[in-house]
Amino acid sequence: MYLLQREKIHERCKNICPNKDDLSIFMRPDFVLNDPATFNTVLPWSHFSVAGGKNSRDGASSRLLQEKLSHYLDVVEVSIARQISLRSEAFFHAMSSQHELQDRLRETAVAVATLRARTAVMDRVMCRGPLQALKDTVTRSNCTKLHGKLKLMAAVQQTQPTVQLLLSTSEFVGALELIATTKEVLQQELQGIHSFRHLGSQLCEMEKLIDKMIVADFTTYSRSDLNRSFEDDSQVLEKDRLQSLVFGLLRQRKLDFLDIYSEEMMQAAKGIVRQCVLRSVSQIEDIDTDTVVKLQDQMRLMKFSQWFELLQNVFEHFVLFLTRIKATLSVIRNVVLEVLDSCQRSRMEDSGGSSLRPGEAELAYLTHEGLFISDALNEAERRSSTAAPSKTQTQTRAETSGSDSASGTTESSSSREQTTNTTSSLPTGGTTSIFFCDLKSVHQCLSLSAVCVHEANCFIFFTDKSRTEDKKPSDFLLVDGQKYAVVGTVLLLIRIFLEYCQCVNDIPSITTDMLTRLADLLKHFNSRSCQLVLGAGALQVVGLKTITTKNLALVSRCLQLVVHYIPIIRAHFETKLQPKQYSILRHFDHITKDYNDHIAEISAKLVAIMDGLFERVLSKYEVKAPMPSLCFRNVCKQMAKMHEAIHDLLPEEQTQMLFLRINTSFKMHLKRQLSRLGVINDGGPQHGLVVVDVAFYTENVQALRSLERLDLNMPEIWEQKR
């Protein structure tokens, strides 16, 4: 409907609007007399002769046209004159207005020129000077800022040499403060400067280096402080150096530095005991050091009085040793308190709040939740002074009585009591907690049974470490009439089992703890074996080129030996447990399952190795002479290598089961290849060639040791007839 309406409108417009072709030539848009075609159309001179015409008719037409044009010219001139006469007044008015406008424009131009001249004078006299002064002020300000930036850049450029200079004098805190300030300047005021683009990362690396230097220096200081001679009367060694180190460690949040001090303290304590023992043993003439070489054997020959004198000497040295530790930790405690106080003042000034900033809570714990050992020792000394006479008073009283033996007994008793009070204040927990004492460690002593349990746990911990043996293990381990080819690590593991069982016999109270540790040891051995062999971790750890079938078989046999001992160990531990504790024995069930799964995975890996070989070799098998084929020769060669690698490691029944699985894989791939080649057991030539190859394979496999009676069941390679 819409299209019909549009078509009607179009037709109506065509009828109303004239065609452009019908327009007069004078009304056309392209009418130009310069165009020769248009000129000839308007003035048809082609009808006239150039020389005046050949006939009278053309001449008459030409004269008529000339007269007509002259008439038109006269008409146009008359019309123009008439129009001018009608508009003469307006024309003369426009002319006069034009003259007046020109006069006014001339006056305006003069006024503008005058204004410009005056403005130029004002600019020269009143504006240029002040504007130049403002410009100079801005330029000077920019130059000052630039000079400041350049000075700041020069100072930043000297950061690294200055840090190195501070480090050479062990000014770790100053070096760290300089690095922190420089990093802040780089981020805020010198951000985006191209020449400093790598300085930030360099400062971070220097900060990490300083962290290591502080820890190393503190370790060196701790070792020097704890191992110096007792003839040195100074309580604290290089106090300023210690304070500087502690400030640096606290600033870098290295709060585990007490662990370092703890380790060094334990080593120094062992050294003190050893030196005292060596000194005491060397003074005993009854001991023949040429016959009795080991120190522990020499100590067993000491008499009770000699033992008592040795303990007294050790305790006296330990009192001096702990006094030095107390003085050192007092300095550390004061530094921590000073840092906390400084942080609190800074926090109050900044925000007026009392909440701890990140990291301050850890520092606060050192002084709020627990006591430093120096505080514990002060408390122990206070209780010792109120509960018993001091060592000096006892000695004076003993000397007055004139009894040397009584003096020695009293002095030993006092020293022993003071040492007991001092050491009872120390916690028995982890490494760090040895420096912090709970209030209840301070006010009560540990019972003898707790000390025994603690010492037993320490013994367990140290027996867990890898220990080396000079004696080379034999090739096989004979257990219940069965040979086990194992590595030396398993022998060491069995020895640890025996030591654990002996510990349970000696100290039944730690049976549950020993069982847990033994379970962890068994799990670790299993997981580590899996990582090194099945996970191929031994390639990186010990540099093996590849994990061989012999490695796999050896690991399997080691695991089997451990599985053999697990029920024996379980039965032994079960006799030491209460019935309500039997539930903890379930660890052995889980561990046994994990070991058996690992052994099965190793067997599957051995089969998978041969399976991959069969797939590669048999995929290229072709049934053609000569026989036996090269393919079957390679298969038999690899089977012999596999047997050679494992037959001395695995028992006969396991070897047979493994080769049965390998034979099943071989038959599957051979059957697939024969089906692909279209060879069937029809008694034909190709069937005969395959029978020769199969016979060669069967003969070679059954020629291997312990596989003579192995039923290979080779007819399964043929497709069943339907």
TrEMBL record:
The keyword ATP-binding does not apply. InterPro entries: Vps54, Vps54_C, VPS54_N. GO terms for molecular function: syntaxin binding. Keywords: Coiled coil, Golgi apparatus, Phosphoprotein, Protein transport, Transport. Residues 399-426 have a biased composition (Low complexity). Residues 482-611 form the Vacuolar protein sorting-associated protein 54 C-terminal domain. It comes from the Eukaryota. Residues 67-220 form the Vacuolar protein sorting-associated protein 54 N-terminal domain. One of its GO terms (cellular component) is GARP complex. Component of the Golgi-associated retrograde protein (GARP) complex, also called VFT (VPS fifty-three) complex, composed of VPS51, VPS52, VPS53 and VPS54. EIPR1 interacts with GARP complex and mediates its recruitment to the trans-Golgi network. Interacts with VPS51 in an EIPR1-independent manner. This is Vacuolar protein sorting-associated protein 54. It comes from Astyanax mexicanus.
